[in-house]
Specification:
Blueprint lengths: L2 H19 L9 H7 L2 H15 E2 L2 E2 L6 H15 L3 H19 L1
Antiparallel strand pairs: 1-2
């Protein structure tokens, strides 16, 4: 991924969330559309992370014992257990670097 693509995706998510979900903006959308827009960030995050977790270049990773795959599972479990984003981010990064160091 290039920085331009990542920044473009971040701008799209920000514009969607700000203009359509900010109460101060006079634009009113139906409830169904507002509920769908709440899932824009997780959907884009999944679209960005899935190729990184499952592919190495153009080839599949060896999934059972791969640091990227194991850390993704650990991150999901931590997110279910604790709703604290910074704590989950820090623990996931520590797990990734530890697994990457020991598995490679």
């Amino acid at each position: 991924m290039t920085w331009a693509l990542l920044l473009t995706l971040a701008a799209i998510v920000f514009i969607n969330r700000y203009f359509f979900l900010e109460p101060k903006v006079a634009l009113k959308l139906p409830i169904v559309v507002e509920n769908m827009l709440q899932y824009s960030a997780p959907c884009l995050l999944t679209a960005i992370c899935a190729p990184i977790v499952f592919f190495n270049g153009g080839q599949w990773r060896s999934l059972p014992l791969d640091a990227y795959f194991l850390t993704a599972i650990i991150c999901v479990v931590l997110a279910i257990i604790s709703r604290k984003i910074l704590l989950n981010l820090g623990l996931s990064l520590l797990c990734f670097y530890a697994l990457f160091y020991f598995l490679n």
